[in-house]
Amino acid sequence: MASLVNVTASAGPSPANSGAQNPAEKQYGLMGGTWMRPARTWIVKTESNVRREKKKLPDPPCVICKGTGKVKCTKCAGRGRTNFTELAMLPKGEWPKWCWDCSGSGRSYCQRCFGTGEKRGIIGFHVPEEEMTGSEANGSQN
């Protein structure tokens, strides 16, 4: 079932609510009058009884990230901030310095699977035995 909700927001006090107002503003709408503060309306669509689908993990999954594609950020140890990473809460008066690597989320892409979640094969190249000739087979290059 979907329902629509109208939300009205005003950028400032409305002329009806303001007690004393300059007569020039009332008459001509000058100096930030009513024409400068239009009421903004957003239509928000909400739905109920919607089931979330679970993300299917790849087969076989990556051994580092277990198929999610994300791991803890190495710079901030998964906290999202770079100051006082060993503490759960910041000391009084301290503001967080957000991690630049993970943008404050505490998660970064897996380095093994590059965020795909799939197990990668061996990196490199393979030269088949039948393509090697006699001089290359025994190791001489001349």
Automatic annotation (TrEMBL):
InterPro entries: HSP_DnaJ_Cys-rich_dom_sf. Residues 1-25 are annotated as: Disordered. Residues 9-20 have a biased composition (Low complexity). It comes from the Eukaryota. This is Uncharacterized protein. It comes from Riccia sorocarpa.
